[in-house]
Structures are given as C-alpha cells and as structure tokens.
Specification:
- The protein is of the alpha/beta class.
- It has 3 domains: about 110 residues, Immunoglobulins (Immunoglobulin-like); about 45 residues, no CATH class; about 210 residues, Rossmann fold, CATH 3.40.50.
- Helix content is about 35%, strand content about 25%.
- It contains 14 helices and 20 strands.
- A 6-stranded mixed beta sheet has the order 17-16-15-18-19-20, with helices on both faces. The protein has a 5-stranded antiparallel beta sheet with strand order 1-11-10-5-7.
- About 5% of the residues have low confidence.
C-alpha cells in the first residue's frame, strides 16, 4: 500500500564550498602577517561571493525537479527476495548537475546488493542522460525481509548538486509504502505433498492407501493388503469368472473433523531463533492439519496472550497467518500452567494440544496437578528444544569427536571450575530427561528436537497420532 507523498527541501553546503572555505580561511590566516596576501584574500572573497550567491539562487529556483512513485508488494515472505521498483520522472526540463538516490527502506529489510552491480548500497547515482531521454526512469532493486511484522518506507530522498557544486539540495519525498512480512509461506505452499526419511529429520508420506480409522470405500484385494481389512460379507457376494470368491477389502482414511490447539511460549524460554522456528513449524503443521480436514486453533502466552478460535478449511490458514505474523518473543516471564488453565476454559471438545516451550525441572512441580486433568479430556504433546550448550558441557568428548580437526590434540586437563560446569550440565540434562520420562508415564506425548528439525518432527508426530487413533 502507498500514501501520497509530501516534499521536504533542505539546502546543504557542497564539497566544493567546504574546500574553498578551508582554503580561504588558510589564506586569511597568512594575510594576518603579510599585507600583500591580505589584498589577494580580500579580492578573492569579493570575486567568489557572487558566484556562491548565484549558485545558491539557481539551485533554489530549480527546486524539486523530479517526481517518484514506488511499487512493492504489500504482503512479503520472510527471507524471500522481493523486488522494488521506483518510477522517476522529470517535473521540469532542466536537471541539476548530479542526482543521487536514497530509498529509505525499513531497518527490518536488507538490500540484495548484487542487484545494484556495486559493492555498497545506497546512495545510487542516477544517469541524467536517461532522465533527459525518457519520460520515466525505472530503477529496480531487491530487498530481503529479515523480520516478521509490519513495515513501512519513510520516503525517498534525492541529493542534487548545483551547477558549480557549491550547494546541494536534499529533497525528501515522504512516499510511504507499508505492508506486512509473514513467515515464509512460500515454503509452506511447496510442502503440500511432503515425503522423506524421518530418521534424517524429514517428513513421512502424508497419506498411505488403506490406512486409518474412518471407512472410505470398498475395493478389490491387492497383494500386500492386510487380511484383517477383508470385508467377508462383500466378498461372499462377489465371484470371479471361474466361480471363486473375489476378495473385497475395506479402504480406510485417516479420521477427519478433529481439533488441534497450538500453544506457543512467547516469553524468555524461547529466544528469537527458537521462537521463529517454532512459529514456522506451527504454521506448517496447521496447513497440513487443515488439508486433512481438522480444525486448528492457536494461542500464545508470555509477552503476548493471544487466542485464535478453531476453524476448519484451508481458508482458515489466512486467518492464522494474519493473527500470528506479528507475534514476537520477549525476555519476560511465562507460565505454562496459566496457558494450560486458559486452554481448558476455551476448549469444549477433545483436542490434540501442542504446547511448545522449553521445559525445565521446576515445571514438573508447577504442572503436576493440571496435567492429569488435561490428559483426561485431551491429548497433550509437550514440545521442547534440545539444550545444545548444556550438551557440549556435559559430553565434551562427543563434541570433540564431531570435529575431526580437534582429534589429534592432546586432552586438556580440566580445572576444578570446568569439572563443576560439566557436572552441573550433566545433572541439568539428567533431571530434564527424568521429567520427560515421568510425563510419558502419565500418558503424555513428549518431543525434544532442534530448531532445524522441529517442522518435520511435529508433522511426523501429528501423522502418527492420526494413524494410531489416540485422538
């Protein structure tokens, strides 16, 4: 989107003005000691002054000589290159000596500098001959949105030099373009038919023929079908040409019309990288679940308490994107207990709840009495990220083996502080795993993964739940 621009003009001394002023000052210092030099200094000042004033009058009379219009999509995808077009046209015939362009893009975006064919970014010098020879000059460059959320361009700025280069005219067109940067929905659109190797962190096939719990149709028996899927009543009514029974099997599909609730921690437990990975995984799985006919709801706790009610259909994905695109994490306290308590108030039917946070030993006590209540009515999946730094401290030998360049080095003798750090890290991880085993014993689902694999891990867990009939 774009708003009509206003124009602000400032006159700034140019480089030639500063050089001449410096030389004039030096000459004035010398003239203090020599009368002959004083006469030269005085005459030089009188001679330069008309040219400086005339150059200033001309640049002021010329004023703004250009008109500009920007073209950019209002909905962008994070980390996807987007093109910006500036349409620059002459408002009057005479142009200044040189014109430099600055497009005041948001700080949340970076210029893809290869499109400028130069090592640096703005300013860019415009070609006066192209402006003179054509009605409109089209300047194109690419931006990469790095952060989700709303964005706006504050304007476009031209720096114009006077003919004698004593002065520069800074003209700012308050040409405001604004829009939204969403999570990378282009990758999600490419993930409609997800296949892969789950052992490598990839995604299993979304649907397999004949598997599921809901009856879909009858079909002829094929090699490899389970004997348990044979419909003997339908088989007894069908005969082959030779009189033998024709085996008929029941074809099942995965259950639909189920409900999924995502709850994401937007507090201190999930820093920016982990939070962005978790949010992208939520949206990816939401897309898959909506394609499977399930209803999807979303909530957050911590820095932002958000609730998006459950909706069905692929069109609901747009509402989810609009509700979650601007969600950010902040270093503030967050309470998984309050999030679960709030979820119980909103849910009126059995749901698959996916709670994403970083769970620690102290969460075992704070959630001890509410988790059984949740587990009675719903199916809960507790998702947490691996603590890579703690693992490096607790298992330093494994870390060294993963880096061959360190294998030839002699083992370093640890200090007392390093031994204590290793012991503390090992104790922390052991208590964490003990908590996860306790939750699994209660019948909860637990998933611990890395930011790079959370999308595939969540989708695989969802598909296994769908096929198991637990929901």
């Amino acid at each position: 989107m774009e708003k009509k621009d206003r124009i602000t003009i400032f006159v700034i001394p140019g480089r030639v003005f500063f050089i001449i002023s410096l030389l004039f000052f030096i000459l004035g210092c010398v003239s203090f000691f020599y009368n002959a030099v004083f006469i030269i200094w005085f005459l030089t000042g009188i001679g330069l002054l008309p040219f400086i004033i005339l150059d200033l009058i001309l640049i002021l009379l010329l004023g703004d000589r250009l008109q500009v219009k920007r073209e950019i999509q209002s909905s962008l995808a994070q980390d996807e290159i987007t093109q910006v077009k500036l349409f620059i046209s002459r408002a009057k015939f005479i142009l200044p000596f040189s014109i430099y362009l600055y497009d005041l893009h948001p700080n949340s975006m970076t210029v893809h500098h290869s499109t400028l064919n130069r090592d640096s970014f703005f300013p860019v010098k415009l070609n006066r001959s192209e402006l003179n020879s054509s009605d409109t000059l089209v300047f194109e460059y690419n931006l990469i949105p790095r952060k989700r959320g709303t964005w706006f361009f504050s304007g476009t700025e031209f720096m114009m030099s006077s003919f004698l280069r004593f002065w520069r005219l800074r003209v700012t067109h308050e040409l405001i373009s604004f829009g939204r940067t969403y999570p990378n929905f282009k990758q999600m659109a490419r993930g409609i038919d997800l296949k892969g190797n789950p052992e490598k962190g990839e995604v299993k096939q979304i649907r397999k023929r004949g598997l599921g719990l809901d009856f879909e149709s009858l079909r002829d028996y094929q090699e490899g079908d389970s004997i348990r899927s044979i419909d003997w009543r339908a088989t007894s009514r069908n005969r082959q040409l030779d009189g033998k029974p024709k085996l008929i099997v029941r074809n099942y599909q995965e259950e639909q019309d189920q409900q999924i609730l995502f709850i994401i921690d937007s507090g201190y437990r999930l820093p920016d990288l982990q939070f962005d990975s978790a949010l992208n995984a939520m949206l990816m799985l939401s897309y898959v679940a909506l394609k499977h006919g399930d209803a999807v709801a979303a909530a957050s706790f911590g820095s932002s308490n958000l609730w998006i009610p459950p909706r069905k259909g692929v069109s609901a994905f747009t509402s989810l994107m609009n509700g979650l695109y601007n969600l950010q994490s902040s270093p503030v306290p967050s309470s998984p207990f309050s999030a679960m308590e709030n979820a119980l108030k909103h849910l009126n039917r059995r749901s698959f709840i996916v709670l994403i946070s970083n769970f620690r030993e102290e969460d075992g006590e704070s959630l001890s009495w509410i988790l059984p209540r949740i587990n009675q009515r719903h199916l809960l999946l507790m998702v947490s990220f691996r603590e890579k730094e703690a693992e490096k401290l607790a298992f330093p030998d494994n870390h060294i083996l993963q880096q061959p360049e360190l294998n030839h080095k002699k083992p370093k003798i640890k200090t007392d502080d390093e031994v204590l750090e290793t012991a503390a890290a090992y104790s922390y991880l052991a208590n964490r795993r003990r908590l996860y085993r306790k939750w699994e014993h209660l019948g909860l689902l637990v998933l611990e993964t890395s930011p790079s694999r959370i999308s595939s891990a969540l989708i695989n867990k969802y598909l296994s739940v769908k096929r198991s009939g637990k929901l």
